[in-house]
Amino acid sequence: MAGFVLNICGAPYTSQAPLSALRFARAALAAGHQIQRVFFYQDGVLLANALTCPPQDETHLTREWQQLAANHQLELLVCVAAALRRGILDQKEAARHGLAHHNLAEGFTLAGLGQLVDGMSSTDRLMTFSG
Amino acid sequence: MSTSTLDLLVIFSHPPLTGLRGREGLDVALVSSTFDQNTALLFMGEGVLQLLPDQQPDCLQLKGTQAMLKALPLYDLDQVYVEEAALLRYGLSADKLLLPVQPLNNVELQQLLQRSRHLLSH
């Protein structure tokens, strides 16, 4: 059994990264491996946008990640600096920046890059999904 | 070239002022070094252009990464490698870049990758 850290850097829909990572995570979990941490960085943070509304006959990537995380108690960590730049904010950040709205999807948590580095130091299996 | 095992090697292969890749790669490297991880940077291909001195990012209303690059030694990030072939391709010499770097030939590049536990490509 191996423990993986996933680093998802590509945006949903305009890149394959979040979908490939989702399929990888499912396959790894089904084979009895562990996903120690899921980190969203660069354009990958856009997956945490609660306002994403793809057409009904397309995969809702944010929802599918939420379901996988709920079923397997995975932590979905979103780089706060990358998220703020791209307009993904939780309630606390919205208040801090004097904005009326926030849009971080449920199940996702804003976190520092230290969480990615800490995850990397605890595994030999870092998988990056680039855009 | 040092032969110790690296915890993280961040690879830069895109030119400067073409998006956030460079800045976000430097951010990871800085945090990694702050967390006492043995961290190095490698500039290859068009990425070596990030090391050109006298860039004027403000002409494009951009911040650029020169200040961050110059500050690397303050964060104990002194393992900065460049692909020798890329320097040749662009007619650059290692001693005229904006910070001290070590040029590597193809064999040395291979060795660098082999002694790195994790790679992040930016």
TrEMBL record, chain A:
Keywords assigned by UniProt, alphabetized: Cytoplasm, Transferase
Pfam families, per database record: DsrE (PF02635)
Coiled coil (UniProt feature): none
Family: Belongs to the DsrE/TusD family.
Source superkingdom: Bacteria
Lineage: Bacteria, Pseudomonadati, Pseudomonadota, Gammaproteobacteria, Oceanospirillales
Keyword Cytoplasm in annotation: yes
GO biological process: tRNA wobble position uridine thiolation
Cleavable signal peptide: none
Chief place where the protein resides: cytoplasm
PANTHER family found in the cross-reference section: PROTEIN YCHN, SULFURTRANSFERASE TUSD
Subcellular location: Cytoplasm
One MF annotation (Gene Ontology) recorded for this entry: sulfur carrier activity
Gene3D superfamilies the record matches: DsrEFH-like (3.40.1260.10)
GO CC annotation terms, alphabetical: sulfurtransferase complex
Keyword Transferase: yes
Source organism per UniProt: Marinospirillum alkaliphilum DSM 21637
Protein name: tRNA 2-thiouridine synthesizing protein D
From TrEMBL, chain B:
Pfam families linked to this entry: DsrE (PF02635)
Transmembrane segments annotated in the record for this chain: none
SUPFAM superfamilies: DsrEFH-like
Source taxon at top rank: Bacteria
InterPro entries: DsrEFH-like, Sulphur_relay_DsrE/F-like, Sulphur_relay_TusC/DsrF
Stated family: Belongs to the DsrF/TusC family.
UniProt-recorded name of the protein: tRNA 2-thiouridine synthesizing protein C
Native source species: Marinospirillum alkaliphilum DSM 21637
Taxonomic classification: Bacteria, Pseudomonadati, Pseudomonadota, Gammaproteobacteria, Oceanospirillales
